């Protein structure tokens, strides 16, 4: 199943939300609860859906990084926001505020539950915190020569989607590091900023048409999802049917056959040529 969505007038939903196998974070929008309510309807039975801001801003997807083990937030996160997150996250999820000069953590970290790719120039202390809190192996990497690895790829436990200009050699290297299948592609009708255009934790795909609003969290902390596999994804409303087919295959969503990726990607490239 594939349903596209946008946050208010933006299809860059990865800027305004973050999704893992243990929790979902959504941004705050004044005047409508539709988007939050749709997240809650789809996910709240298995993971908590938490509405929040980070440092008083709505671009939470670019500022935080996390997986089922933990959540990393920048130093600009207020004490009130930190306490709100502590109250809403499952008890098994570690929460850590990081003093890192590259404070847009969502731009500089891309991870699943086992591996993290990070900006080559992050502080050594930050690298150690990432490994400890998220319980991952950490690799300093670039994606198609871009240092903002969190912006130009999206990773789940099932697969990965990366910048369309990532070379075959680099794809093979990244796939070896991540230990998951990997494909180059786009979202939002040709956008190469994969991390900004989608969020994922696997199995089936939902691209939801709705909006965020009030600052509140789902008080049902959700069941322990540590033994669950990935089950959902969200992408921008402008994402084409071909792009959806590619990402569904890349992340093994909805029973898609990964062997069909090459043909779908060729169609995608021809469509934007």
TrEMBL record:
GO MF entries? ribosomal large subunit binding; translation initiation factor activity
Q: Where in the cell is it found?
A: Cytoplasm; Nucleus, Nucleolus
| Stretches assigned to coiled coil | none
- The superkingdom of the source organism is Eukaryota
One Gene Ontology term, aspect cellular component: cytoplasm
Q: Which CDD domains match?
A: IF6 (cd00527)
Keywords noted in UniProt: Cytoplasm, Initiation factor, Nucleus, Phosphoprotein, Protein biosynthesis, Ribosome biogenesis
Q: Which GO terms describe its biological process?
A: cytosolic ribosome assembly; ribosomal large subunit biogenesis; ribosomal subunit export from nucleus
Protein's UniProt keywords contain Iron-sulfur: no
- PTM comment for this protein? Phosphorylation at Ser-175 and Ser-176 promotes nuclear export.
Residue positions, PTM Phosphoserine: 175-176
Oligomeric state and partners? Monomer. Associates with the 60S ribosomal subunit.
Q: Which family does it belong to?
A: Belongs to the eIF-6 family.
Annotated function:
Binds to the 60S ribosomal subunit and prevents its association with the 40S ribosomal subunit to form the 80S initiation complex in the cytoplasm. Is also involved in ribosome biogenesis. Associates with pre-60S subunits in the nucleus and is involved in its nuclear export.
Q: In its UniProt entry, what is this protein called?
A: Eukaryotic translation initiation factor 6
* Organism of this sequence: Microbotryum silenes-dioicae
Name of the coding gene = BQ5605_C014g07634
């Amino acid at each position: 199943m594939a349903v596209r969505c946008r946050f208010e007038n933006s299809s860059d939903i990865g800027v305004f939300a973050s999704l893992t196998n243990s929790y979902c974070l959504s941004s705050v929008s004044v005047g409508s609860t539709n988007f939050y309510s749709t997240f809650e309807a789809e996910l709240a039975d298995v993971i908590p859906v938490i509405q929040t801001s980070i440092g008083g801003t709505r671009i939470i997807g670019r500022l935080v990084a996390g997986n089922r083990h933990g959540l990393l937030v920048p130093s600009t996160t207020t004490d009130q926001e930190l306490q709100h997150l502590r109250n809403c996250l499952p008890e098994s999820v570690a929460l850590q505020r990081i003093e890192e000069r590259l404070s847009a953590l969502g731009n500089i970290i891309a991870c699943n539950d086992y591996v993290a790719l990070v900006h080559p120039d992050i502080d050594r202390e930050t690298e150690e915190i990432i490994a400890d809190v998220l319980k991952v192996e950490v690799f300093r990497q670039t994606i198609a020569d871009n240092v903002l690895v969190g912006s130009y790829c999206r990773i789940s436990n099932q697969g990965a989607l990366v910048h369309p200009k990532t070379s075959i050699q680099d794809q093979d290297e990244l796939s070896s590091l991540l230990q998951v299948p990997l494909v180059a592609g786009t979202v939002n009708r040709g956008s190469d900023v994969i991390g900004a255009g989608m969020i994922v934790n696997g199995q089936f795909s939902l691209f939801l048409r709705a909006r965020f609003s009030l600052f509140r969290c789902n008080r049902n902390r959700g069941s322990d999802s540590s033994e669950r596999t990935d089950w959902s994804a969200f992408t921008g409303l402008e994402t084409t049917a071909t792009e959806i087919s590619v990402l569904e295959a890349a992340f093994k969503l909805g029973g898609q056959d990964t062997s069909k990726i090459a043909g779908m990607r060729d169609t995608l490239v021809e469509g934007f040529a």
